[in-house]
Amino acid sequence: MSKQQLSFDHAMTVMRRLRGPGGCPWDAEQTHESLKRYLIEECYEVIEAIDKADDLLLCEELGDLLLQPLFHAAIAEERQAFTIEDVLQALSDKLIRRHPHVFGEQEIKTSEEQIANWEKIKKEEKGAERKSALAGIPPHLPSLMKAQKITEKAARVGFDWEHTDQVFAKVLEELHELEETMVERNEERMEAELGDLLFAIVNLGRFLSVNPEEALRKTIRRFESRFGYVEDALHVKGRNLKDADMDEMEALWQEAKKREQ
Fold first, then answer.
1. Any idea which architecture 3-97 has in CATH?
2. What is the mean pLDDT of each run of 10 residues along the chain (261 residues)?
3. Are the beta carbons of 193 and 181 closer than 8 angstroms?
4. Every domain of the chain and the residues it spans
5. Which end of the chain lies in a sparser environment, N or C, as judged by fewer CB atoms within 10 Å?
6. Which CATH class is domain 132-210?
7. How far is Cα 112 from Cα 116, in angstroms, rounded to an integer?
8. Cβ(161)–Cβ(167) under 8 Å?
9. pTM higher than 0.85, yes or no?
């Protein structure tokens, strides 16, 4: 038995022990439903470790993320629904089935061809379950990510713009329509037009090969960093944000931007 297999089996043994008699009360109480939030949290902590380019932290966070499928598999095993071995077997089978150019005779030369073939195989696997070209998108994805996946799927069946200029024009059009609703002060229409604008921007990001979820996340991080600089600079002077006017805060904000460069 390989070292990797021993380590994996050991982790699963530890998980079963935590759930079993004399184990941890908290672990024993968890259900598939109660663990959903932790699965999401761990995914974002892995992303944070990647952003920091910290290998030690990434190793730790990947372990925390791996805990989640082990946890769910242990719960399912207790119900005699499936085991972690079933999960791994299903994964291996899927990877082989969806890569016929690696494990079979099919020839695929580009990643674009592979994406199209992957979707084709998925559709064949699901059969009648997926009648819409937009089917298969998880309903609980963050909205920007979900919008991106929707536009990608629509584009694969030809429902798409031809040029980036057309998408940019659509963004400007939606911005103008939002401006009109602001004049009218129609809250329901403002919400709808703001949504249309965001959707158009997501589409523009796809044409620019920019991930909108990632772009916004990095912008938020920059905002937090610059805002913190403004707070700290004022604190050194024995003041706080309430003591400063907008011109002073803007000047400090520009200082923060220059420091980033």
1. Orthogonal Bundle (1.10)
2. 71 95 96 94 94 95 96 96 95 93 89 84 70 82 92 91 96 96 92 97 96 92 95 91 92 93 80
3. yes
4. 3-97, 132-210, 214-260
5. C
6. mainly alpha
7. 6
8. yes
9. no
